[in-house]
């Protein structure tokens, strides 16, 4: 691994995607990308007793499916990096059990998918692992009851509010096999522009995405023109507009190359307001849409920038703002 | 990009909430709940010949029951999405806050789940409602002494 500029690292060995899988809930299946998701459940409990168990089930299903598709065995996988939105990484802790694979629980809020991919590619590139699995998930109902209100509580959502995606995605990275490959990574830094509105996560996360993208372009000497697709995790319509605006101000006009997973996963008729969010948002869009399209060579060079609002309900009640983070992973065919 | 510059640009990207539309729906649906309350009161006094104060309590109980029922069958939050303050302000909103919490935390057990969490939303209303009635009572007492 070689450092380029201030925050970007080049992955020098071949680290390829040798398998991926996604699973979503009913609302996501009915969305514009519904046809991309092979695994889904109309039942929001996924046949389990509670929403937390449903989230763990999604992770388990994704891991099982990735291992099956990659024609490998759990004992050949060196590490699992997994994360979700719940306290203590509940979805992951209960999801990865039973596979007997060394596990690291990762919390980066909605940025976790890119964070796990970064950690996994570092492990392989540094020679510490041959195969690593990255899994993240979120569940609308589990997130609502932890962060907001009970499901049946009658409240109006603001126009900037986002809808937590019920879904999970998993990627198996392997040394010297699979495609697309990860060629560059740019881990994020905490970026806090003093946003305190918990119903406006897109705005809280946008500065981190802007900072990570601009520092990546500066480090690599590239511009949006060099990429087929630049995809942020879950900024939604509000965050997407802010990022587009600030990139343009810095003379990085991303035009129609820049999209956001949170905007792609739901359409306007689905009442998701500013769009989708959660670890499952970027994970399911990456594994259901981006990676399959890269294998078809629709996109050959993609910047995947998962964004996280590191919101603590306790700190928000104490009057503190919401720190944001954005991790970047470059995939190439 | 400094914080103030960022905040001012970000503000322009937010879609405004439809305040006028929300107010109109809140008025219509909230008003309908109040009309229903009055109709219940008239029925209890006119048809069942109950005393006025008893009929008032019965009307409140009936609205609370209907709110709990609609919350339980998953309709209250759907109406509230359109009605906003119209379903929040009447006594039905208070009932919804309690019943929705009770449903949500049933899985964590009846003591540490339902018991602990049932007033997680309605708690402040009870605390400050009680405090406000204390202030009102004190005020009433002093006024009586003086006048």
Question: Would you give an account of this structure?
Answer:
The complex is a heterodimer of chains A (333) and B (147). Chain A has helices at 26-29, 51-69, 90-95, 112-125, 140-147, 201-220, 236-249, 261-264, 279-295, 313-317; strands at residues 2-4, 8-24, 39-40, 79-83, 102-105, 131-138, 163-164, 167-175, 181-186, 229-232, 258-260, 276-277, 301-309, 324-332. Chain A is of the alpha/beta class. Chain A has two domains: 2-175, Stage V sporulation protein AD (Peroxisomal Thiolase, Chain A, domain 1, 3-Layer(aba) Sandwich), CATH 3.40.47.40; 181-332, Stage V sporulation protein AD (Peroxisomal Thiolase, Chain A, domain 1), CATH 3.40.47.40. In chain A, the strands form two sheets. In chain A, strands 1, 2, 3, 4, 5, 6, 8, 9, 10, 11, 13 and 14 form a twelve-stranded mixed β-sheet that branches. A two-stranded parallel sheet of chain A has the order 7-12. In chain A, β4 (79-83), α3 and β5 form a beta-alpha-beta unit. In chain A, α6 packs parallel to α7. The radius of gyration of chain A is 18 Å and the shape is globular. The two termini of chain A are 19 Å apart. The model of chain A has no long low-confidence stretch (mean pLDDT 96). In chain B, 80% of the residues lie in helices and 0% in strands. The N and C termini of chain B lie far apart (63 Å). The relative contact order of chain B is 0.08. Classes of the chains: A alpha/beta (333), B mainly alpha (147). Chain A binds chain B through residues 49-50, 145, 149-160, 193-195, 200, 203, 206-207, 210, 237-238, 241-242, 245-246, 274, and chain B through 1, 3, 6-7, 9-10, 13-17, 22, 71-72, 74, 76-77, 79-81, 83-84, 87-88, 93, 96-97, 99-101, 103-105, 107, 121.
